[in-house]
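Thread: sanity check for a docking pose with zinc ion

Original post by kr_44:
Hi all, I'm comparing my docking run against an independent structure prediction. Below are the sequence and the ligand SMILES. Could someone generate the full complex and paste the structure tokens? I mainly care about where the ligand ends up relative to the chain.
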Amino acid sequence: MSTTVRASAFTEPERPKNLQIRFVTIGGSFVDVIGLGEHFKNRWKRHGCKATSQFPEEGYLFSIREKANNHAAVCRAIPLT
Ligand SMILES: [Zn+2]
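Reply from moderator J.T.:
Ran it for you. Here is the predicted complex with zinc ion included:
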């Protein structure tokens, strides 16, 4: 299985306020990590499949970053808008 990340085939959405990290997914969409930084509540949201962070919904950046990147590495949904 190839793990090569390709450039997104889709236009990058507008960057929301408090965007900390934006990952491109294997499907060419985006996962946003939104929050106030390392020591504050952060969450992630996926543009293509509508998945969001859960259990917990919010967490420290080091934890949310890993979960968002893991989702980006496997999610093949494309953005529909
Ligand atoms: Zn997804």
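The pocket of zinc ion is lined by residues 46, 48-49, 51, 71, 75, 77 (CB under 6 Å). Hope that helps with the comparison, let us know if your pose agrees.
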